[in-house]
Design brief:
Layout lengths: L3 H4 L6 H8 L3 E5 L4 E4 L1 H7 L3 H4 L4 H4 L5 H7 L3 E8 L2 E12 L2 E11 L2 H28 L14 H13 L6 E4 L6 H10 L8 E5 L5 H9 E2 L12 E2 L1 H4 L4 E5 L6 H13 L1 E3 L6 E3 L3 E6 L3 H6 L5 H7 L2 E4 L10 H16 L5 E2 L1 H9 L5 H14 L5 E2 L6 H5 L7 H9 L12 H19 L4 H7 L4 H10 L3
Parallel strand pairs: 6-13, 6-14, 7-10, 10-13, 15-16
Antiparallel strand pairs: 1-2, 1-5, 3-4, 4-5, 8-9, 11-12
Helix pairs in contact: 15-17, 20-21
This protein binds adenosine-5'-diphosphate and magnesium ion.
Length: about 475
């Protein structure tokens, strides 16, 4: 069967073809006598084909081992063979017929060390280039976190983490919802790292930070000449870079509506078109999208495409804000401190009891990112080992705790506004105005969280909701 194709080649071509395949060739029989040797080899050896044929190979070629390979059947690759005071690199293969050794074929890979060095240095450069790009890709497009970095024991958080872990192996799209600083990006990294795509690129793109007119070419790339200023040879888009890996579309809620349509098409067809390009390029990318926005509301208001929402929202992971997992705050703070200690070359930093209390009470609108900033600031102003209230930023120190004690109450009255200008009007109206303002302030402080605002005001949930209704809040 193997000869089938060769039969079509005219016999008179055989020698030419063989000579072109390798510059120097020799074939010996089982005994090591030369059956074939080409002219180039003979020229180099200072002999002729006629003289060399049928001679024992070790008498024609210095240091030859062809007769040995023809006996042992063990091939020798890239063997250094000194001839005429210089060294060649040779390959020697046994030849078989019906499973029996019948002879051997020898070829010269490099005629001299110079040739080898040139070749090697070229390959070496390529290898180095390859290594450079490999590490570059690994550092730029590699996810850096796994689930062990996700700290927290509260039930809500553990549930989110478990779900993420469970679905990481599947190829389904994932939508991560959570306020800013809750760890959406960390989750995305961990999911990728836990998936069978972990060896492939993890590419993160923040849809809110790329100008609208650049987003398309960033995501899908462009062809040469697609627009003025387009790079020669065009450019790969992030979809192509993320091929076989994961594309993290952060702040998807901020993607312009026109772009949403283009994205939807790509997700449906699983292929992209570069800007200014005709051909379609197939891509296999797992999408993890994230946003702090209320996508349901955006869909209802027509700011987010419903069909895109459905497509992305195959698995929804909701990360709770810090104030909904107060029991985790101290644990996370201690973990962040360990990280910061390393960065600041400090050791053994602790939190005072009061600070722990304060950190737990705070509502953390910026979540873990805010906590990180607060701790970093505290370490910056810290001389000793223990972070005290004084080391906390002013806005945290001055914030009232929901459980007022006597001392704090008197402090509160100290910062009461000046009431001497209250207009003379029915008392009911004044009290209502103050009440309304107090509720508004509380809501602003809790970023609209009514339950929490009620707690700060020490009101029951029901009466708080009643007041909100009354004042149209
Ligand atoms: N569960 C967690 N445990 C420890 N650190 C976390 C956790 N979640 C987030 N972080 C840290 O908080 C910061 C904000 O996280 P990030 O993933 O960027 O939040 P988001 O994308 O939701 O804004 C990062 O520095 C991250 O390392
Ligand atoms: Mg983020």
């Amino acid at each position: 069967m193997a000869c089938q194709g060769f039969k079509n080649i005219p016999y008179s071509w055989h020698e030419q073809i063989i000579d072109l395949l390798a510059e120097r060739i020799v074939v010996v029989d089982r005994e090591g006598n030369i059956l074939y040797i080409n002219e180039a080899y003979c020229e180099f050896l200072g002999t002729t084909v006629e003289k060399a044929l049928n001679e024992p190979v070790y008498e024609v070629i210095e240091n030859s081992r062809m007769h040995i390979v023809a006996k042992t059947g063990k091939k020798e690759l890239a063997a250094v063979q000194p001839i005429n005071g210089s060294e060649m690199i040779a390959n020697r293969y046994p030849l078989y017929e019906n499973g029996e050794i019948v002879g051997a074929l020898g070829t010269v890979m490099f005629r001299n060390p110079e040739e080898w060095r040139m070749y090697k240095s070229k390959i070496q450069r390529l290898v180095e280039e390859l290594r450079y790009y490999k590490t570059k890709v690994q550092s730029e497009y590699k996810s850096k976190h796994d689930f062990s970095h996700l700290i927290g024991n509260s039930p809500l958080f553990v549930a989110a983490k478990k779900l993420a872990e469970r679905v990481s192996e599947s190829a389904s799209y994932i939508l991560i919802i959570g306020e800013s600083g809750t760890g959406k990006e960390l989750f995305a990294h961990s999911i990728h790292n836990n998936s069978d795509r972990s060896g492939m690129p993890f590419v993160a793109v923040n849809c809110a930070s790329i100008p609208e007119h650049l987003l398309e070419s960033e995501l899908f790339g462009y062809e040469e000449g697609a627009f003025t200023g387009a790079k020669k040879g065009g450019k790969k888009g992030l979809f192509e870079i993320a091929n076989n890996g994961t594309l993290f579309l952060d702040e998807i809620g901020d993607m312009p509506i026109a772009m949403q349509s283009k994205l939807l098409r790509v997700l449906q067809e699983r292929e992209i078109h570069r800007v200014g390009g005709q051909k379609s390029i197939a891509v296999d990318v797992r999408i993890i999208a994230a946003t702090h926005r209320d996508l349901d509301k955006m869909v209802a208001e027509g700011h987010f495409r419903q069909d895109l929402y459905y497509r992305l929202n195959v698995i929804k992971i909701e990360i709770p804000p810090l104030r909904k997992r107060k029991e985790d705050i101290e644990l996370i703070a201690m973990n962040l401190l360990k990280k910061l200690e390393g960065r600041f070359f400090r050791k053994g930093i602790e939190l005072s009891q009061e600070v722990k209390g304060k950190l737990t009470q705070h509502s953390w609108p910026g979540n873990i990112r805010e906590l990180e900033n607060v701790l970093e600031r505290s370490i910056n102003v810290l001389d000793g080992q223990v972070i005290e209230l004084d080391h906390l930023p002013l806005y945290l120190r001055e914030q009232e705790s929901p459980h007022h004690d006597e001392k704090k109450k008197s402090k509160t009255s100290n910062i009461m506004p000046d009431f001497s200008t209250i207009p003379v009007q029915p008392l009911k109206e004044t009290l209502a105005a103050v009440e309304k303002q107090a509720i508004e302030n509380a809501l602003a402080f809790t970023k609209g969280n009514k339950l929490e605002a009620a707690k700060y005001l020490e009101m029951s949930k029901t009466s708080f909701y009643e007041k909100c209704k009354l004042y149209n809040l």
